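Handout, section 4.2: multi-component inputs.
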Amino acid sequence: MDTDERPKLQQSIRTNPFHRVIQECLVGTKEKLSIVKHEIIEETKDAENENRLNNMLRAEGLVGPPLEDKESESKNPEYHANLISVRKRFELDMKEFEAKRVAFRDDFKKILHTHGEFRPITHNASDIMIKRVDNDFTKVAIEIKQQACEEVIQLKKRFFDARRTRRNFSREATNILTDYFEANINHPYPSEETKHALAVKCNISVQQVCNWFGNKRIRYKKTKAEGKEKSVHNPQGPPMMPNPYGFGPNPYPMMMPFGAPQPNFPSFPPHLMTPCHFVKPEPPSESPSSEDSNGQNVAP
DNA sequence: TCACATGATTTTTA
DNA sequence: TAAAAATCATGTGA
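Output:
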């Protein structure tokens, strides 16, 4: 249709004395024939999703009253500053989004009303179309909330990931753990009770004891395998290191790689010592580290 | 600055 | 579900 003709045609339809009657007739017929498909709008999933995100946002203090935890705030001022800026950004995004949602909804209703003058749109069809628009906006809202939640997760990872605040254990703690490992080299799996005892003795958590043994076992195994592989290439075998225990195979494959210079052995349980082989280590030279004045690991 | 050591986390496996 | 294995991120010493 020529664009110049359209307003004229619309005007002539509007001024037609039978316009209203015809329109009502067509809408009624359409409703009777059930031409409008009753769409099943799946809102449940979106609603659940949004609910979950709302709970998380509340828990993290991004909505509702800001969380007031003076202790953690003073401990992590940088984290709290970042959290506040995430909250501000989120509030701004949501405000902008709400304004757009309202404006679009109004415009859409106006368009529907205008269309309704020239083609039969049932109330049901109109409701469905508005609902569809609302659903699309809900999806956008979920995305905005999801993004804010992800920002908080990244922030937490950045400030509270223990890997970033890792500190080496004190030399004494490492020695205690190593001693136990070496003394139980055939089965380095401490019982829960032993783990607790070691944790107390080393001034670390039971979880840290578990981590330490997990790492130690896997790395011991790896080093041992690498040593074997080397000995295949060199059938004569690498020069054996003196065994500090005076019996059995070398229990220090990891600490004393084959061919490495003779080290000072760390202290180990008296019942395993053969005095003639034992060399008490010199106290380590002071170097800047994470240990405190007691040589203790500083907790993250 | 770089390579290696080491504690923690995540993923896979039994 | 604990342990193994892989991976990450930081500490450390040359």
